[in-house]
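User: Please predict the structure of the protein below. I'd like the answer in structure-token form so I can feed it into my own downstream comparison script.

Assistant: Understood. Taking the following sequence of 274 residues as input:
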Amino acid sequence: MTSNQTDYGKAGRNLPVATAVGLGLLATVIASLFIDVRFFAILVAFAAMLAVRELSKALAVGLSDRMSILLQILAPAIVVSAAVSGVEGLLAAFVVSALLVLTVRLLDGQEAYVHHVTRSIFTLVYAPLLAGFAVLLSTQEDGAWKVLAFILLTAATDLGGYAAGAIFGKHPMAPKISPKKSWEGFVGALVLQLIVGVVLWIYVFDQPWWEGAIVGFVMMLTATIGDLVESMIKRDLGIKDMGSLLPGHGGVMDRLDSLVINAFMAWLLFGFFL
């Protein structure tokens, strides 16, 4: 270890800085939700643009500046379409964006066409399309509380998994994908997620506790999958973080990994139970 490097132990990051940044982001999201949900849509659109910038840089080696700029324009457009026209607008905007990617990439010639188009469309799915479901959730009745609940449920997976893994973790869960994840952490995430789900369903939504338990269990699984997918992408690309914009966290996409997967799941489950 060089003199310029700091050992953060099991945490792998500067926890005080990461906590401060995380709380600041949460406060910003809460303010946007309860002042005017349109601000939340703008915030998500901006985050999606930054995430696409990171993803396009990491995934699409050799992608032209023209395509990179196009993806960063399309990302917020997809998210805003969800706020303006609902699920139909979200899906229509995504399909139009995919067609634009296919068309504009023709200008750069035949070489690596399929490679670049595939990665570009994956980028649009992984960030703005999935993030758009959080905006759809915010436009529903009690949308602000539903979005806050989905964020708390996702955070419970991270916090429960980290705490239990740091204290009890001995058995690796997926050593070839994410070496620090353990089965003990998985159980900790499950326990905290079930508690948060039940509390939210009883005291916020005034619904049966068992519905909250089901939602908590499913969203714990999808949050874990989202985290593992992000880890696999980074290992495949040989990078530690998607970016460095957020001190203590990495890039924007490093914070959105579980959230974008759970945004869709929350929209689906909340629509069914609530």
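That's the full token string. The chain is about 75% helix and 5% strand.
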